[in-house]
Amino acid sequence: MLILGLTGSIATGKSTVSSLLSQPPYNLPIIDADLLARKVVEPGTPGYKKILAYFGASTPDLLLPSSGDGDDGLGRPLNRPALGRRVFGDSPDRRRDRDALNKIVHPAVRWEMYKAIAAAFFHAHWAAVLDVPLLFESGMDTICGNVIVVGVHSPAVQIARLRARDPHLSVEEARERIESQGDVLEKAKRAEDRGEGNGVVVWNDGDKQDLAHELSKAMRSIQNDSPQWWAWVLLLVPPLGLFIAFESFLRASLAKQRWKEERQQERARL
User: Fold this and answer.
1) Peptide bond into 92 cis (omega under 30)
2) Whole-structure pTM value
3) Angle value at C-alpha 213, between 210 and 217, nearest 5 degrees
4) Residue 252 burial by CB count (10 A; 0-12/13-18/19+): exposed, middle or buried?
């Protein structure tokens, strides 16, 4: 089974691509990191309790007001905008708080992802989509046979789209949220650096119809490299599946190492 990494940045159209991939003609299972991140911090979960322990004393509005329907014994849901104000931004305090939150959420999300990947494999899907905003930054790209980056060429387009979706955000707040997910142009380059057949960029500078057309072209190329019958072969011959998975992991890890070396060389020239 092909693990197809999907990433981008806020307001580049990644969620639209994820939705398109879940529908005909693709009908792929979507493993959405954002949804899992919400699941692992629901009231009563270990993640929820750790967030309360770290942020509760210094964030009076961390929890949503009581709905008046009674206490179910698990606690009130997190006030995500309030938590976002604590972790978005580039000050030392915000970076520290963001790192703390990531250390709580990311391990739990990874475990849920691995369970979902296993389920998709045993249901004989030819591919499963790993929808992760910070795919490269989290290192999850190394388990993906192919990576799709949904990008736009202009940050101004991202800011305009994000503020149209969330009008309560100021320009600076929108910029902070975009910067928190990394430079999408850099992500596009990292996908291309994985090599032909291992990474592709879907540009979303137009409307939804243009995006669907660009995605269709990308998926035709991906399906030619990993047809559905190949998923059945890997399911029926587990040792071959393990070998292919190891080879894909090694290839992605080498691409990641090359990228790190290039970044170090660029910094040395500055």
Assistant:
1) no
2) 0.83
3) 140
4) buried
